[in-house]
Predict the structure.
Amino acid sequence: MQCGPGCPGEAALRRAVAATTPRGNVVQVAMVSDAYREELARPRATAALGSAFGLIAVLAAAGGLFSVLTYAVAGRRREFGIRTAIGASPRQIRRLVYRDAAIVTASGAILGIAASAASARAIAALQYGVRAWDPWSWTIVLGLLAATTLLACWRPARVAAHVDPVAPLRSE
């Protein structure tokens, strides 16, 4: 225990308690800041671990969505080439890719919301200061999911929009 100037020692504290409360017993002497830090250590560690797992989940979702969209765009090169050949603009092609990504993301979000509703009571003990259906938390999570989707879609949509319309037709 570190004590600043003017702080009584442990023996002086025990004497003061004994003088005011003869039957009192001092079990432990500690500074309030140390006790406070110890009390919050476990919730802080749990929050840090949860945040780390959340970040890993976001990165995994972005990587998975990017991979699925890249694969889907590669499989639809012929379609995108034909659409471009008959007059579709790059903006329309990008919109197709973003729409497909939105459908995949929305279905995943619906399944995730259902799973979180099912497990809300089980993880309530891990939540500190937040209810399971806190609207701000859900807004932030769904906004992060939308931003992750847009970021993961950007490259595949760009590739799809710049498909050479002649290349798929030459391959046949």
